[in-house]
Amino acid sequence: MWQDGRASVQQEHYLSALAARRLDALVAATPPPTRSQPVLLACPPEEWHGLPLLLLNVLLRRRGWNTVYLGANVPLARLEETIQTVRPGLVAMAAQQLSTAVQLREASGLLAERGAQVAYGGRIFNQLPDLREQIAGVFLGEDLGGACERIEALLEHKPKAATRSTQLPPSSPAAEAFRRDRKLVESGLEQQVGGVGGPAGDYLAVANYHFGNALQAALDLGNVAYLESDLEWIKGLLGARNLAEESLGRYLAAYARTLQQVCGPATAQAADWLESHAPGN
Ligand code: B12
Fold first, then answer.
1. Distance in Å, CA 7 to ligand 1 centroid
2. Residue 74 Cα, ligand 1 centroid: separation in angstroms?
3. What Å distances lie between residue 50 and 72, 73, 122, 227, CA to CA?
């Protein structure tokens, strides 16, 4: 509803906070855990969608598990210390977006290296099942319904074979070039699409922030086509705000040109993909 413009951000925040309070109240009303092995629940850095893991927390607590819910946007620094203190039988993580799938990939690698068993899920892994190949952990399924049984099976049997390699693929030249030159690309775009300041400038700054994050994530994950799910989201958002789809077309075409000019051959494939996906092309 929020994406369609039928609910305001304020209404969405109000309802999310209400849902979180209700879930917290359910946890508080649950009897003490009957199973001693802790289960740690944490969102990776920059992931603010904490509700799914909060819900999983309630479900696990109701089955007697001793959960430690760390919430949204948990930094990776000192995670090792936490693992040593809590000594969890399993760490459950969730990511809903492309950019936080990259963060979850890093967290899972780090945890697996320290010998922790990782399990995960989230919207982005449902949309792009290929991504599961890059995570050092066990996928818990497409919805929260069966997640508790899977977690219990993992805690009871600890299948080593189900955990993937913890070796991260080397960063691609395209990902490195964009990381290095993103600011230059964005200032080039400001000159092409419109100056900063005023409504157009505001939209551009917001678009650059979200789109740049998603593009960096797609390149980090090794496939610019992973951006497709974000483009659908942006199209819906523009439509709901009465902005023509051509503005996305112009933006993507200008992005492709600027990327090509600033980063050169390293990002040629990404620039071609953006150009061919610009509505109106
Ligand atoms: C509430 C909400 C927020 C709240 C979160 C509050 C909170 N405490 O969690 C806030 C305001 C923080 C937020 C922020 C943003 N959000 Co938001 N948000 C939502 C919303 C409306 C509901 C998400 C939710 O909790 N659903 C309840 C859960 C239980 O259901 P679910 O998400 O559908 O999950 C199902 C499966 O995916 C799966 N699953 C999900 N997680 C897990 C985990 C495990 C372990 C398992 C097994 C399964 C599983 O199981 C569930 C069904 O059983 C969705 C829209 C929607 N309808 O889903 C957008 C949505 C997720 N948000 C979105 C976006 C874009 C954003 C923002 C970028 C917006 C912005 N402009 O700033 C920021 C990003 C913040 C960040 N860096 O993380 C997009 C993501 C699109 C995309 N391509 O990335 C969505 C899909 C909305 C949309 N269609 O545009 N958001």
1. 15
2. 16
3. 5, 8, 11, 23
Closest-CA residue, ligand 1 atom 42, reads 122
Q: Binning pLDDT at 50, 70 and 90, where does residue 78 land?
A: confident
269 Cα: distance to centroid of ligand 1 (angstroms): 30
DSSP letter assigned to residue 130: G
257 Cα–ligand 1 center, Å = 32
Residue 141 contacts residue 150 (beta carbons within 8 Å)? yes
pLDDT per residue as tens digits for the range 187-210: 998 887 765 444 455 677 888 888
Q: What is the CA radius of gyration of the chain?
A: 21
With a Cβ cut-off of 6 Å, ligand 1 is lined by: 2-3, 12-13, 16, 20, 46-52, 55-56, 92, 94, 96-97, 120-123, 126, 140-141, 143-145, 147, 229-230, 233
For residue 127, the ligand 1 atom closest to its alpha carbon is 37
Q: State in Å: Cα 66 to ligand 1 middle.
A: 26
Q: How far apart are CA 163 and CA 83, in angstroms?
A: 18
Residue 200: predicted pLDDT: 56
**Residues 229, 231, 235, CA angle at the centre, nearest 5°?**
120
What's the pTM? 0.93
- Give the HSE-up count for residue 38: Cα atoms under 13 Å, Cβ half-sphere: 15
The amino acid that residue 91 corresponds to is V
Task: Give the model confidence (pLDDT) of 96-109 as tens digits.
Answer: 999 999 999 999 99
Alpha helices per DSSP H over 114-227 = 123-127, 147-157, 173-193, 198-220
State yes or no: pLDDT of 272 exceeds 50.
yes
Query: What type of residue is 97?
Result: Q
Amino acid, single-letter form, for residue 5: G
Task: Report yes or no: 88 and 38 within 8 Å, Cβ to Cβ.
Answer: yes
